[in-house]
Design brief:
Elements: E1 5-14, E2 19-25, H1 27-32, E3 38-41, E4 53-56, E5 59-61, E6 66-72, H2 76-82, E7 89-96, E8 108-114, H3 118-128, E9 133-140, E10 157-162, E11 169-170, H4 173-181, E12 186-190, H5 193-204, E13 211-215, E14 231-234, E15 237-240, E16 247-249, E17 253-257
Parallel strand pairs: 8-9, 8-12, 9-10, 10-11, 12-13
Antiparallel strand pairs: 1-2, 1-7, 2-6, 3-4, 3-7, 5-6, 13-16, 14-15, 14-17
Helix pairs in contact: 4-5
The structure holds flavin-adenine dinucleotide.
Flavin-adenine dinucleotide binds near residues 119, 218, 219 and 246.
Length: about 260
């Protein structure tokens, strides 16, 4: 079980009013991390907010000993993070959870990312490198919520979708999936729960079976599998998003989140 460490802020770039890309240095985290995993950060100078905040890794640079996170300011913890400057330290636990797995022989990787859910897919596309053809669909409500293309791996082909049509195709990332379904050997998806459930519904309309991996989000407290606040019901029984997840195989998911545990 990892212990909390002090990660150094290298850069914290504002990409829009509420979207940020923070780069931190901690060699042991960068060395151990795999795409799909997350870190649990203490986003405050005191015990307020009390709980750590989970963030997926959007870039992992083992050689430089750094990792990066694409994040959105939605409340106190993320606002605190957005005020960190180079040289500041952030109490960080990780890497935590399961990771995406590219199967041997998979040549065509289709990645569907909604909003900040695109972050871990960027790390996965970078890890795939030239060993596979990657097509990444980045969907968001509006153009300013899309990840700037400079952050996306050059090897990946990129398609954009926005709800309002302000960039790329008008519609959602899920809407574009059927066009590429037959091409894909493996599919990876990450985004808000409603988007993932819409994606699951769209997959049901397709014929044939594919290996699909979903990275789920759930409210969590400890991040270490102890508190059981993030349990989802799977076909293999109750599983913790923080420990057995956040990456799950599609065939294991029932799309039911436990309550009252
Ligand atoms: C495995 C995992 C990976 C994540 N990766 C990212 C990421 O890469 N980038 C990113 O911007 N966000 C990510 N999130 C969501 C992120 O953890 C929340 O946005 C963050 O905790 C908000 O904290 P806050 O104090 O700013 O907001 P708060 O004021 O606490 O809450 C604002 C909203 O954020 C959500 N939220 C708050 N706490 C949690 C929690 N502990 N777990 C889940 N959701 C919460 C709720 O919807 C809440 O309404 C991830 C969540 C999980 C579970």
């Amino acid at each position: 079980m990892p212990s909390p460490v002090s990660a150094e802020v290298i850069a914290n770039a504002g990409l829009s009013d509420s979207l940020f890309w923070i780069t931190l240095r901690h060699e042991a985290i960068a060395r151990a991390a795999r795409p799909g995993q997350f870190v649990h950060m203490r986003n405050g100078d005191s015990d307020d907010p009390l709980l750590r905040r989970p963030y997926s890794l959007s870039a992992i640079d083992d050689a430089a000993g750094t990792f990066a996170i694409l994040y959105q300011v939605v409340g106190r913890g993320s606002a605190w993070l957005s005020r960190r400057r180079p040289g500041d330290r952030v109490d960080t636990l990780g890497p935590l959870g399961s990771h995406f797995a590219i199967e041997p022989g998979s040549r065509h990787l289709l990645m569907i990312g909604g909003g900040i859910g695109t972050g871990p897919l960027v790390a996965l596309a970078a890890a795939a490198g030239d060993d596979a053809d990657t097509l990444l669909i980045n969907g968001a409500r509006t153009a300013d919520a899309l990840l700037p293309t400079a952050f996306l791996p050059a090897a990946a082909e990129l398609h954009l979708a926005t709800d309002d049509g302000s960039a790329g195709t008008r519609g959602t990332a899920v809407d574009l999936m059927p066009e590429w379904y037959d091409w894909a050997d493996q599919i990876f998806a990450c985004g808000p729960s409603p988007m993932l459930q819409a994606f699951e519904a769209a997959l049901k309309l397709q014929t044939g079976s594919k290996t699909v991996q979903f990275a789920l989000e759930a409210r969590m407290a400890c991040g270490l599998g102890v508190c059981h606040s993030c349990v989802v019901t799977t076909r293999r029984g109750p599983k913790r998003v923080c420990t057995e997840g956040p990456v799950f195989a599609r065939q294991d998911l029932t799309w039911r989140w436990e309550t009252g545990i």
